[in-house]
Design brief:
The protein is α/β, with parallel strands linked by helices and about 230 residues long. About 45% of the residues lie in helices and about 15% in strands. The protein folds into two domains: about 150 residues, Rossmann fold (3-Layer(aba) Sandwich); about 80 residues, Orthogonal Bundle (DNA polymerase, domain 1). α1 packs across α2 and α2 packs across α3.
Length: about 230
């Protein structure tokens, strides 16, 4: 899928990124963590079921009252284990959070960030705790100007708090291009607040009917760098 861009109408100079799923390959990280746990249990891993179950359960947990992301990971991990038919004591569920610092960037992430860094301010808006994101930042080859975490705003996307704080830090919505993969967590709520959005459509999904029209649609971050002339 090639890059698609609309006519640029805003002089944005800040790129805000979702982290896990956009910069970091969270699906591989999750499946590897569950595969390791499955090996300890002597059962076969089920990657497709793990990813879908985690996606569903995490969203349910995050829709409730705010709790630290470590607790979200523990609750989601327990929920996935139940769907897989595993018996797991709650105190044994910390292994998923422990795996997060090992989740690695997509192959295009760091080369693209190095190019984008030359032209734009870079920031992260992420559904995570500060300490977990700090571990992830070691995987990046550039320094980000600032970050907004769920811990800081005590809320999870798609609720608007991340984007509102990002707008405040950037000095206005017109300065921001938000870059993300998830339509549910990022593209729709960012567009609702008037942000320009670049949809990183890594899985070649169909644009949802009646959904927002991203300013750019790319299949990876190197395509975005090309589109933005970085």
């Amino acid at each position: 899928m090639g890059a698609r861009g609309l006519a640029r109408t805003r002089p944005f100079d800040v790129l805000t990124f979702d982290c896990y799923g956009t910069l970091i390959d969270w699906e591989s990280g999750i499946t590897k963590a569950f595969a390791a746990e499955a090996a300890r249990r002597g059962v076969p891993p089920e990657p497709a079921r793990v990813v879908q179950a985690y996606r569903d359960i995490e969203a349910e947990v995050e829709a409730g009252p705010y709790r630290p992301y470590r607790e979200v990971l523990r609750e989601a991990g327990l929920g996935v284990a139940r769907r897989l038919g595993w018996t797991m004591a709650p105190e044994r569920a910390g292994w998923l959070a422990a795996s997060l610092p090992l989740w690695t960037p997509f192959a295009d992430t760091n080369p693209a960030l190095a190019r984008l860094r030359r032209r734009f301010h870079l920031a992260i808006l992420s559904n995570v705790d500060d300490d977990l994101l700090a571990e992830t930042m070691r995987h990046f080859s550039v320094t980000f100007d600032w970050v907004v975490t769920a811990q800081q705003v005590r809320s999870y996307k798609p609720r608007p708090a991340h984007f509102q704080e990002g707008i405040r830090k950037a000095g206005g919505a017109e300065r921001i291009l938000h870059v993300a993969r998830s339509v549910f967590h990022d593209v729709e709520p960012a567009a609702d607040l008037g942000l320009a959005v670049a949809w990183v459509n890594r899985a070649a999904e169909t644009v949802p009917n009646g959904g927002p029209s991203p300013e750019f649609i790319v299949s990876n971050l190197l395509e975005l760098a090309d589109v933005l002339g970085a």
